[in-house]
Amino acid sequence: MTGGWAGNLLLGGIILLGSSVQWLTGMGFALVAVPALVLVLGPTEGVVLANCAAGVICLVGLAGGSRQVRLRAMVPLCVAAACTVPAGTWVARRLPEPVLLAFMGTLVTVAVLLVMGGARVSALRGGGGAVTAGALGGFMNSAAGVGGPPVSLYAVNAGWPVREFVPNAFFYGVVVNAFSVAANGVPHLSTPVWLLAAIGMAAGAAIGRVLAPRVPEKRARVLVLLLALGGGLTTLGKGLWGL
C-alpha cells in the first residue's frame, strides 16, 4: 500500500468510484476498481478486497430484483464458476508479482475490448455457453478480481435486455465472489481502511443512484469501459516494467 492517510483516502476514493459506476450502469465495479486497487495494495490484497466489496454491492443490489433472476440459466454459470475458482487462486499465488500484474492487466484490457465490441461468440450460447462463461468468470474472478465480462458476453449472445441482465449479474456476483473470498481469504487491512471502504461503498451507491436518471446509459457505459481500459493498460504496463 502507498501508506499513511493519503494511501487510505486513495483506497476509499477508488472504492467510491467503483461503487458509483456500478450503481450508475449496473456493471463496472471490478473493471474500474481492480486495476487501481492492485496498484495501491498489490495483486493479492487488491483482488481479495475487490472480491469482498463487489460481493457486498451485488448482495445489496440483488435485494431489489431477486424475482427477476433466471435460475435455470444461472445455475450452470454458478456451478462452473465454483469449479474454476480454486484454479484461479492457485495460478495467482504462484506467479511472481510483475507477471501477475501483467496477467491481470491483460485480462482486464482484453475483457473490456471484447465487451466494448459486443463480441458474438458461438461458444457462449446455450447451456454449453453458460458453462463456458461461468468457468471463465470464476477463474478470472479469483485470479484477477474481474469475473463479470464473460457473463456480460454470454448475456449479449443470449439476447438478454439490460433490465434482465442486471439482477442476474448481481446474483452471479454474489455467488462467485463468495467462492472467491472463501478461496482467497479476507484481506489483512486495518480497521480505518475497512471503515473507509464501507464509507466509499455507501457514498458511491448514493452518488450512482442520484446520477442514474440524469446520465444516458450508453454514455455512462462508455465512460466506465474507458476508465477500465485505462486501468488495465496501466496495470499491464507496470507489470511489464517490472519484468
Automatic annotation (TrEMBL):
Q: Where in the cell is it found?
A: Cell membrane
Q: According to its UniProt record, what is one Pfam family this protein matches?
A: TauE
Location (main, coarse) = membrane
> Keywords of this protein's UniProt record, alphabetized?
Cell membrane, Membrane, Transmembrane, Transmembrane helix, Transport
Topology with respect to the bilayer: Multi-pass membrane protein
Segments passing through the bilayer: 21-41, 47-66, 73-92, 98-116, 169-187, 193-211, 223-241
Identify the InterPro entries for this entry: TM_pro_TauE-like (IPR002781), TSUP (IPR052017)
Homology family: Belongs to the 4-toluene sulfonate uptake permease (TSUP) (TC 2.A.102) family.
How is this protein named in the record? Probable membrane transporter protein
